[in-house]
């Protein structure tokens, strides 16, 4: 048995309530309109797959592509729906939006579940938890991608041409 394994288990168990607390605190601030920037959305789109890859490498467990790809695609559809239903307003040259807390709650639950399964379950159970993270990654990609498209369209304004 590795000497660091007990320490990693303690850190793993402590991370679960920290994630839950973080999600709770973030959901309290999500109900307000915040500035939405292209850079912020692109960072979120790029960070999510990297996070999933690093987490998968740390756990030493991956999800079979036959499950991961459909789950990411379904999640992208769900996230796109959330992204296209987020209310956006234009104030000067800045775009503001009020995001839904459900995307964040979904991510927090999938992360905490995966962490718990990694600590107490088998590799198969951990892979199931990683599958929920694939779905969550899809929702993040779909929502932020939809917001990025809508932001650009809002800033561009209505198409030029004759008015009806």
Descriptors:
3-stranded antiparallel β-sheet, elongated, 5 helices, mainly alpha, 164 residues
In short:
This protein is mainly α and 164 residues long. Helices cover 74% and strands 8% of the residues. Strands 1-3-2 form a 3-stranded antiparallel β-sheet.
Q: Tell me the strand order in the biggest sheet.
A: 1-3-2
State which percent range the strand residues make up.
5-15%
In helices, the fraction of residues equals over 70%
The total beta strand count reads: 3
Multimer state = single chain
Secondary-structure element order, as H and E?
HEHHEEHH
**Uncertain residue ranges:** none
Class by helix and strand content? mainly alpha
The end-to-end span amounts to 75 Å
Number of separate helices: 5
Domains (count): 1
Radius of gyration over all CA atoms, rounded: 19 Å
Overall morphology: elongated
The major pleated sheet works out as:
3 strands, antiparallel
* Overall pLDDT metric: 79
Task: Give your account of this protein's structure.
With 164 residues, this protein is mainly alpha-helical. The protein has one domain (36-154). It is built from five helices and three strands. The chain has helices spanning 5-30, 38-59, 65-84, 102-120, 123-156, and strands spanning 34-36, 87-91, 94-98. The protein has a three-stranded antiparallel β-sheet. Helix 3 runs parallel beside helix 5. The mean pLDDT is 79.
